[in-house]
Every structure is written in C-alpha cells, then in structure tokens.
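User: For a benchmark we're assembling, each entry needs the component sequences followed by a predicted structure for the full assembly. Here are entry 17's components. Please fill in the structure.
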Amino acid sequence: MTEPSKPKATEERLAEIRQQAADGTLLSGQPDSSGAKSAQNGEQSYYGLPALKEPTWTWEVPLYFFLGGIAGLSACIAFFAQVFGKDPALIRAALWMALIGAGLCPGLLIADLGRPTRFLNMLRVFKLKSPMSMGAWILVAFSGCAFFAVASNELVLVGYGGTFMILFRWAAEFSGVITGFLLAGYTGVLLGATAIPVWSENRVVLPPHFLTSGLGCSSGILELLGFLIPATQIIGFVVSGLETLLGISFAVRKRPANRPLHSGRLGVMFSAAEILEGPLALGVRIFAGSSANGRHAAAICFIVGALLSRYAWIWAGRVSARDPQAYFETQRQS
Amino acid sequence: MALTAFLTDATLCIGCKACEVACKEWNEVPEDGYVWSGNSYDNTTALGASTWRHVMFLEQHKTAGPQISDMQDPFRWVFLSDVCKHCANSGCLEACPTGAIVRTEFGGVYTQPDVCNGCGYCVVSCPFGVIDKRHPDGRAFKCTFCYDRQKAGLKPACATACPTESIQFGPLDELRVRGKERVEELKHRGYDDARVYDPQETSVGGIHAFFVILGEPEAYNLPPAPQVPTIHLKSAWTSALVFSLFIAAVLCGAFAF
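Assistant: Structure for entry 17:
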C-alpha cells in the first residue's frame, strides 16, 4: 500500500482544504466499484487470508520425528541382526541407540507442549482415532521395550545368560521391533491425518518416507560407529535408492497441495534434503562405497538430508495452511 | 437433551459486531489485538484462540448479485458473523489426545481448559481453521457454544446481543428447516445465489452452526467440501504397516549376507 503524500499543514493548506470541501473536490473520485481487494476473478477466498490455522509446533517436533525414527529402526536392526546371529557389538550399539533415542524423545515432546507440566494428560485416554494419542502410548511402550532389551542384553553379555534371560531378551527385542516400526511410522500418519493440504495430500507417502529415513539414519550412524559390514552397505543402497524414487515422484506430481514443496526458500530446502538423502547419498555410495571414507560420506549425506527433510515437512505445513486456494482446489477436485 | 444450533444469516447481518463484543465480555476472552486490517471494516481478521465470533465484511462487485439493502452502494456489501461450526464429526475432538475436547449434551464441541495440555494437534485437525493455541497461555481455545449459558437455559451471548436476529439460536432440526425456508424466501425475492452452508454430504456430517450466505462459500473462506481428517487414517496406517513389512524383508535380506 502506498502512503498518500502528506502536504505540510500550514494555514494556507487548511484554507485550501476548507475551499476544496466547499467545492466538493476534497474527496475526489468514487469508491472503486469493484469493492475492496476481495475475493474475485475466480480467486475466491476471504481477502486471500488463510482458511486454516498454521501448525503451532516449533523446532522440537521435527527433531523428535527424526530421533524417534532412528530409535525405532535401531531396535529393528538390532532384532534382525540378532536373528541372523550377527556381531554382538553391533546389536549392543543398535539397542543402546534405541534406548538413547527413546530417552531424548519425551523431553522434546514435552518441551513443545503449551502446558508442559500437564504432559501426563496424554495418558488420560487411549484413543485409536487420534494419532497423537497413539503416538504417546507408542512412545511409552517403545521406551519400555528399549529399556528391557538393553538391560537384558547387558546382563547376557556379562554372563547372566540363562534360558529365561535369553527368552526375555528375545521378547523385549521383538516387542521393540513392533513398537519401533510404529514409532517411526506413526509420525507420518500424524501429519497425514490433518486438514493441512500438503500433509493430507501425502498421507500415503509420508509413513514410508519417514520409515525409510529412520532406517537409513540408524544404519548410517552404525556405519559412522565403524560397523562397515555388508548389511549396512545394502541398507544404505536400498534407502538412498528409495529416497531417489520418492524425490522423483515429488518432482513429477505437481499437485496444487504440493506447491509449498516446489516454490520459494522452502522449495529449495526440500529439494536439497531430497537430493542429499536420495541421489547424492546413492551416488557417493556407488562411486566411493568401497572405501570407509566413501561410506561415511554417504551416511552423513543421508542423515543430514533426513534431518533437513523433517524440518522442511513441518515448515511446509505452515506454508500450506496459508494458501486457501490450494485447500479449496483440493476439495473441488475430489 | 435436544441438540441446539446457530443459524447465522448473512442477509440479516448489519456488521455491528455486537456479537464479538458480547462474546468477549461474557466469556472474558482476552484482547486479540487492535489492528486495522485494511480489509473493509474487518479488524479481527479471522477466528482464533481469542476471537470466537468474527464479523466478515465482503465488498463484492455489483455483478456478483443484488444488494441486500436499498442503499445505493457502489459495490455489494455482505456481512457474516463467523463462528466455530461445532461439527457433527469434529476434527479437533477426534484429534485431541487428552480428552480435553468433549461433546456436550447440547451437541456442541467444548474444550476443557483444565485438561488441555497444549499439544496443538487440534489446531491442524480443524477443517475450518477455527481452534488455535493462545499465547502465552499455551492452551487451545475456541467458541464454547456458551455451554455455561445453555446449561442455565439461556441463549449464547452472541445470539442474545444480535440486534437483527442474524444470529439465531434454537433446536438443531428446527433451525435447519428455518434456514431452508429463509433461502427459499430470499430466492423468491430475487437473491438467486442465496444458499445454506451446512456440509452434510461430506465426512463432517453437517455442522451445528450453519449459515445463510450469498454466493460461493469460498468467498467467506468456508471450504466447499470440508472433510474430517480422520478419514485419512486408514490409508496412512495401511501404508505405514505395509511398508514396515517391506523394511522387515529388507533387513532380513541385508543380514542374511
């Protein structure tokens, strides 16, 4: 809006105003018959204002998504490594990663609450229809599994490896797999089952996307910890390949609801994340995957991309909520 | 207990904002900023944590339809007092993980401030962009449908204060009929684009605060086909579970080597 030029209020100016008012020329021109800058020309909305409220989540939530994914898939890696009788050191590291992740997650979630002291209210109800409620319960269950898996594994390693303890460890690790998949995957459901166009549009893509990046990050951290075994190499290829395919699908499917992913600074951030997780991590692994440094580089690319991507998705929700046209268009199509 | 409803009629609204004032005073809602929005006479801009009634001011081109008054305005004025829709299938209520948001015996959707822990999931689950977190309080707030007044047999504050009966309050079934009749009457009088906004055909399943509007709902930022977000749960969870099985297979393959 341009500021009207302000003549200096001198006595002459006041006399001029008086004269203009008498002549009827003071307020020259008519109000614009098209009305205010309102909803017109097919661009129907109320002054272009948001029709939805923006997500209120701050930096803790994407970090929680990221760590929850790592923790959940670490538990899965530990279990399957155990099943195939792999290196106990790898299993131990993966179990500890699951427990540390599970330990950090509640803090992040609680810090994001408007009333952190009321975090236990999350456990007042068990609501299958609310992914937020399910997530709280999943996190509690997973933390328990991760704790008992680490505890029993440590006891087995120091020599308390009786039949009961071995069976207990299997039970804890298997429960860790179930709850681990749920912990890494539910965050995608949490975003998908909202009114935010860019999230609900991608409700089927988000859970696999988050599970894939959880798996890649967990395996990548194990590689960085020195577990340069064939398994982490294979996982590295699979996850970066999957992310490459996902990146291509996002680039090709330009739906109105996906506009935040393709435009502006957020579009750049999202693309960078997709490239790091997908083609770059894959390329580095293909061309330099035979060396330890190459595998480390590929792992770092993937982890950085995955973290960036979580932030991009939350930010995309904010941008998406501000676009009434995308919201209305999505509804008119269906 | 009979279900109650609001029928808010844009063709009767004079834009006086008595509903906003009455709501603020009765419910002791904090101030929501003294802002000149520049959008006609609208200074509250949108519903929010501290704006539970919001009077919209539409200035449409004369070709949009006949003016409601006899005044020779250069454009077509439409006013509408927006409010929480109190959906039959309510996104915020279903999303709430603490059980803070409940359905009252009158059919309204009520948030209990003593239970809400401010997780913010209702905010992204409302298909109408109504409920929001209040800063720095941290909890989510929205129209209570004056649950306290209804309990005492009184009309909500906004409906009581409305000087033109643009905001009508009464039994749900009765008001639905009255809304239809009003639209018929308006059409008979030449207002061809009059309609009831009450999305009963979508998963929202109808609202308990419906509107008589002129023209497309989008002009009032009312979504043409709002959906309750829980309809997405099945496909999202299925995707998560199927893909988890796929990852389990990948891990089996990877560790078999």
